[in-house]
Design brief:
Elements: E1 2-9, H1 13-25, E2 31-35, E3 51-52, H2 62-73, H3 79-98, E4 124-125, H4 131-143, E5 149-153, E6 155-161, E7 181-186, E8 191-202, H5 223-230, E9 235-236, E10 241-248, H6 262-265, E11 269-271, H7 291-305, E12 310-313, H8 319-325, H9 327-335, E13 345-354, E14 357-359, E15 371-373, E16 378-379, H10 392-410, H11 435-451, E17 455-456, H12 458-481, H13 486-507, E18 516-517
Parallel strand pairs: 1-2, 1-8, 2-5, 8-15, 14-16, 17-18
Antiparallel strand pairs: 3-4, 6-7, 7-8, 9-14, 10-13, 11-12, 12-13
Helix pairs in contact: 1-4, 1-10, 2-3, 3-10, 5-13, 8-9, 11-12, 11-13, 12-13
Length: 532
Amino acid sequence: MHKTDFLIIGSGIAGLTFAIKTARRFPDKSVTILTKANTDETNTKYAQGGIAVVDGKGQDSFRKHITDTLVAGDGLCNEKIVDIVVTEGPERVNEIIEWGTRFDKDGMGEFLRGKEGGHSENRILHHKDITGAEIERALLEAVRQLSNVTIHSHWFVLDIITQHHLGYLVTKATPDVTCYGVYVLDTENNNVVKVLAKCTLMASGGTGQAYRTTTNPRIATGDGIAMVYRAKGRIENMEFIQFHPTALYETGVSPSFLITEAVRGDGAILRNGDGVAFMASYDSRADLAPRDVVARAIDSEMKRAGTEFVYLDCREMDMEKFVEHFPNIHARCLSIGIDVSKSLIPVAPAAHYCCGGIKVDENGRTSIRNLYACGECASTGLHGANRLASNSLPEALVFAHRCAADMALVVDSVKFNDLVPDWNASGTNDPKEMILITQSLKEMQLIMSDYVGIVRNDVRLQRAMRRIDLIHEETEELYKVATLSPQLCELRNLITIGYLIVKGAQLRKESRGLHFNTDYPDKSEILQHIVL
């Protein structure tokens, strides 16, 4: 058994920022970070484009950034939260710069600012085309200097501990459901560890692996969202899955390599198989329209022509600037025989970001006491029906700060619950065939991609739900008798994520933002958040 004052699940930008702030505020208290893979293997690491923040200079303003966010969110953003993130973002970004994050500068020492789809001004700070990796590097270095922070890598969190584990019936209607800590599988020795905590932060990242084609790393299996749902916490707006319009098309490669939106911001043009620049026929903003518009346009062009990709044309761009700004994209394309100065890049949409998640308030509190959430696993109200490009990183910083501030007020009033029992693994055996797990995962991803993708309808959603129900039934039977493994637990979590996405999509009788249902092609007059 382990005890810690502050427990953090996840080691991306949200979890690490919270850890730095909390450990410095309470040098005499323990801060523990749990991550199921290597410490730096996070969604943050794979963020290419940058971080959207207003600098107060030139033509840009908070009001413009707020308006751009609200327009992208298609009516479902919480305007108070948008104001909070946009106005508090600059101070939070300055903090990570002080902690060692290096954003690109011009010859005069001023930060370079890019422009991406949906933005009216150049406001995207970046570090070449590996912004997330640079932020992750700097934050990890800062965390490792703090003596009261302990990091456990390859510790897979199984479940949030609540009154349910003390023998009480817990339902959605139960008042004051409380988090006492988590059960964790130490994958290096296959022991289940009980970790008790006064306050817990869920910062477990996204859900991209629910789909066959995704830009997300293999760890993005929605574990935190699934755990909170099982613990009877509130989840909302899961139907809004953002597909990045331009992932590099490579047969059989997973995860897909992302071609950041900043490439189009610098002048790249989308073309169909006939060489026609098609975006202007879908939206007046053409190639710089928001992601939901661009992804649906590409999907339409592919279905019209019966192809699996369209093209991104960079041939007219300044190649010296391209190589300097996008060195990894340039190198990856060259590695598969594509010289972007002469050839078109084949691209297709891929699952990229979950705009819904664990419902939280303005301080990151979930519906479960002493449990907070921030980062991609949380639904703060910022993104609404569609995330504006490069808004997720400032959101994580702002809410990590707010979670830390709020938790600081309550931690001393919380006591450890020493009545929590150890994990009971009696009566289980190693699964005789791993194929039972791997095949179910492939089926899940195929169902989600074919039936619950960019464009949906009621028949597809009904078919998806029936098939997910069957896989759920088979997997739960296996879970009851098999010893624990990350593969089995991730499958269970992804089944829950698939269910939540489909259920949310079935309940939304309209088309809005990232959710487009051909049976309900228009927006409803009623603005509704789907809470499960």
